[in-house]
UniProtKB/TrEMBL annotation, chains A, B:
Residues 4-117 form the Response regulatory domain. It comes from Ruegeria haliotis. It holds the Pfam family Trans_reg_C. The modification 4-aspartylphosphate is found at D53. Residues 131-231 bind DNA. Residues 131-231 form the OmpR/PhoB-type domain. Keywords: DNA-binding, Phosphoprotein. This is Response regulator.
DNA sequence: CATCCCTTTTTACATTCTTTTACAAGTTCG
DNA sequence: CGAACTTGTAAAAGAATGTAAAAAGGGATG
């Protein structure tokens, strides 16, 4: 799901303009005009990144930074005015990750946002130890290099779509999978009745793995329902 | 080899005058009029010492200090104006090694430079030994010298961009990285759909590290998504 | 400062991959 | 059996990638 950015800024014009352009970049954006609103928002939907104006009525940006940093590892970028160097430094010492000076350059701000979000998601990225290979029948699917190896070690290269589809089959042996489900498994895409992508891909996979593609042993057609991956050894 | 000093100063007069007199003292001197230029310079040829003006358009001296200090143990001397005591103090807190106030006395500055460089070179032997090299498969990526060494010890020189890209790959093995992300990792640059820089660089890297560049084992293309670094031993 | 050399980026075109289209062939069920 | 529907598949269209070569930078040198 899209990453969640919360803008905390009491000037409505700046806030809304910023929110609009961030939404255009496909971020999920919430707006708060003060610390209280922000807390409500993130209680409901935790933020990945806070964009906080340093000068606000009530609880200011530095206080927010200190409090949030103590509570979580959310990314924090401060919006400061150009001449407020001291605030900037203190902000960083309090745990903000970055700052931009107002009036800010859009592209610079966006670059910093993207950058920080990437760093953050890297940290939380639990390196899921994927099994490097899956063996079925005589075939070995090399997950790491996304290719297929036969018993003798010969490499059968797969395109991205072929690999994704075969991978989906390997994960669901002996189960009938609808075209809809398969399309979802390989690319999170919506299926519509005259989408023939899966059929074409099945045809190509059969050419690569079946002894006799027109009389398949591995990928079986189930008329009206979908396809069934039927490896010999399950 | 002579020690490398980088002057980061946007006033050309001050900068060039300083550079000239430092060159007379047999230092290797590079000039940068802003943070971007500085980064390019030290990417190509790491600095022993940065001389940074604290007041500059764009990224200022304090920011540079913070960033560089986080990345390395390079020596940093700040050039401050006489009345900016706060900046000086903050600068030192952020990790600058020393500062001089403008207008500065030549002999004083040179004394401080000599002093700091001496302290650094004392450390540098130790630092070189612990300087990390990354080993993956049969390759060793030498961070210090920015080059690649194979199992037999043969050196494969890399250009700056090639090194940065390979370094990014080394840091993210087994993960699909989009072109956007890669460009960000190697130079904090915005990606646009018809930027082919990454593709070209991947092509060049493949020529250097793949047995068969048109059938790569290490850097795998994932159509529509990006590239995947697949070392044999993760 | 002009010039050279090396690196990086852009451009242009060839190639490959994905999806769609079109029609042939197969299946179901009255 | 035959109409209605589903599947197989070649081939076209549309995108993305590979890559040589031109253009643009950038630093070094005289």
């Amino acid at each position: 799901m899209a990453q969640h950015i919360v803008i905390v800024e009491d000037d409505a014009v700046t806030r809304k303009r910023l929110a609009a352009s961030l939404r255009k970049q496909m971020y999920r954006v919430s707006e708060a005009e003060n610390a209280g609103q922000m807390e409500e928002v993130i209680a409901r939907d935790p933020a990945d990144l806070l964009l906080v104006d340093i000068n606000m009525e009530g609880k200011d940006g530095l206080t927010i930074t200190r409090e949030q940093r103590a509570a979580s590892k959310v990314g924090i970028i401060l919006l400061t005015s150009r001449d407020d160097q001291i605030d900037r430094i203190i902000g960083l010492e309090m745990g903000a990750d970055d700052y931009v000076t107002k009036p800010f350059d859009r592209r610079e701000l966006f670059a910093r946002i993207k950058n920080l979000l990437a760093r953050i998601s890297e940290l939380s990225e639990v390196r899921q130890k994927v099994e490097p290979v899956a063996q079925v029948g005589g075939w070995t699917l090399d997950h790491l290099r996304r290719r297929l190896v036969d018993e003798s070690g010969t490499i059968e290269p797969l395109t991205r779509a072929e690999f994704e589809l075969l991978h989906a089959f390997f994960r669901h042996p002996g189960v009938i999978l609808s075209r809809d489900r398969l399309l979802d498994l390989i690319q999170h895409r919506q299926w519509d009745p005259d989408n023939r992508t899966i059929d074409v891909l099945v045809g190509r996979l059969r050419k690569k793995i079946e002894t006799n593609p027109s009389n398949p042993d591995w990928i079986i057609t189930v008329h009206g329902e979908g396809y069934l991956f039927a490896p010999p050894d399950i």
